[in-house]
């Protein structure tokens, strides 16, 4: 298919605008700002090796993680694009202690959306030229438009998401997102700087043969997870499964969605809530997973129904092909 016959992301966003009765076009402008910021981050990621932006930034974020230079840069790029284009009234980021209030009247309208973002996911992979990503999650604010945003605008259940998606800076760069009507993937043609619809209506296979987990932590895992891993490795039927773990949630999720698989970041002895963040990582990925016919739980409960209590809250994460997630949940139930 030639470039000219493919639909661009810009055309797709405009085409879909009417589906959601957001007649002010605010969500379209918001998605366009994310599209633009992703291209800027992509440019920076691509030249990381030659531009003195690999390595540590020299400070820690609120979650006690050492920030990488690209964590900081990607955070700035997304916050600048979203705030200066006046498309959101508030932003919360993995890299910021607190949420940001943005007094904006974009296009004469009081903005009603807040964005939660993991600006650079998989930051341990930056220095070694392995795929990283960006994850975003969009909600309608619950407090009165025109007033400063409040914590409660961000602490919403995942089921309230209006849109969510990720960018994967991989062997090619893609945006994959949902507005609640399925999941679509767009690949960047770097020579034109244009995203094209390359993966319409993405679906998780109901079953798969890939399991993704940091098995180095095996000794610290709950018994249910240990037993599930033994099950994956058993020689029986279509097993043993294949183990694949990149260490970038976005990249592991993306591969599992295309091929069929399960991603697990369980609780472990030192961290009963696991590692991944409910608001910046698990909710958006869970929304995408469900929209693609997959499943996302904490081993027991649907992620999207968990009531958040804190901005940087962590939660165990089991996500992927339905049959595989349900099998893992079975093992969790037996040993709880
Ligand atoms: P982030 O780079 O945004 O802090 O996220 C890292 C997350 C996730 O992307 C990945 O799957 C996981 O941490 C890897 O953790 P381990 O190194 O503990 O396996
Ligand atoms: Mn981090
Ligand atoms: Mn992350
Ligand atoms: Mn991150």
Automatic annotation (TrEMBL):
Protein name, UniProt field: Fructose-1,6-bisphosphatase class 1
Gene Ontology biological process terms from the UniProt entry: fructose 1,6-bisphosphate metabolic process; fructose 6-phosphate metabolic process; fructose metabolic process; gluconeogenesis; sucrose biosynthetic process
Organism, scientific name: Chryseobacterium piperi
Subunit structure comment from the entry: Homotetramer.
Binding site for substrate: 121-124, 214, 245, 275
Gene Ontology cellular component list: cytosol
Positions with a binding annotation for Mg(2+) 2: 118, 121, 281
Documented EC number(s): 3.1.3.11
Compartment(s) where it occurs, according to its Swiss-Prot or TrEMBL record: Cytoplasm
Record's keyword annotation contains Kinase: no
Reaction equations catalysed: beta-D-fructose 1,6-bisphosphate + H2O = beta-D-fructose 6-phosphate + phosphate
Binding site for Mg(2+) 1: 94, 118, 120
Associated pathway: Carbohydrate biosynthesis; Calvin cycle
Keyword tRNA processing found: no
Cofactor note: Binds 2 magnesium ions per subunit.
């Amino acid at each position: 298919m030639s470039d000219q016959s493919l639909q661009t992301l810009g055309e797709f966003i405009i085409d879909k605008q009417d589906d959601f009765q957001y007649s002010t076009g605010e969500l379209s402008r918001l998605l366009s700002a994310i599209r633009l910021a992703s291209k800027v981050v992509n440019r920076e990621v691509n030249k990381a090796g030659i531009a003195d932006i690999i390595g540590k930034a020299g400070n820690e974020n609120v979650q006690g993680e050492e920030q990488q230079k690209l964590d900081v840069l990607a955070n700035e790029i997304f916050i600048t694009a979203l705030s200066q284009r006046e498309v959101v009234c508030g932003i919360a980021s993995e890299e910021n202690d607190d949420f940001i209030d943005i007094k904006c009247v974009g296009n004469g309208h009081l903005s009603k959306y807040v964005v939660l973002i993991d600006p650079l996911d998989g930051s341990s992979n930056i220095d070694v030229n392995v795929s990283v990503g960006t994850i975003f999650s969009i909600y309608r604010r619950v407090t009165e438009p025109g007033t400063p945003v409040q914590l409660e605008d961000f602490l919403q259940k995942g089921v309230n998401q209006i849109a969510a998606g990720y960018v994967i800076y991989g062997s090619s760069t893609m945006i994959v997102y949902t507005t609640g009507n399925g999941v679509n993937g767009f690949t960047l043609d770097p020579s034109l700087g244009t995203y094209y619809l390359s993966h319409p209506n993405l679906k998780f296979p109901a079953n798969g043969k890939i399991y993704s987990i940091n098995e180095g932590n095996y000794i610290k895992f709950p018994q249910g997870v240990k037993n599930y891993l033994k099950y994956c490795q058993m020689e029986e039927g279509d097993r043993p499964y294949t183990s694949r773990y990149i260490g970038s949630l976005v990249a592991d999720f993306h591969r599992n969605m295309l091929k069929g698989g399960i991603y697990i970041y369980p609780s472990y002895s030192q961290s009963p809530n696991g590692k991944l963040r409910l608001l910046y990582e698990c909710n958006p990925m869970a929304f995408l997973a469900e929209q693609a016919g997959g499943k996302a739980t904490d081993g027991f409960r649907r992620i999207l129904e968990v009531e958040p209590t804190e901005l940087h809250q962590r939660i165990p994460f089991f996500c992927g092909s339905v049959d595989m997630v349900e099998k893992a949940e079975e093992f969790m139930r037996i040993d709880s």
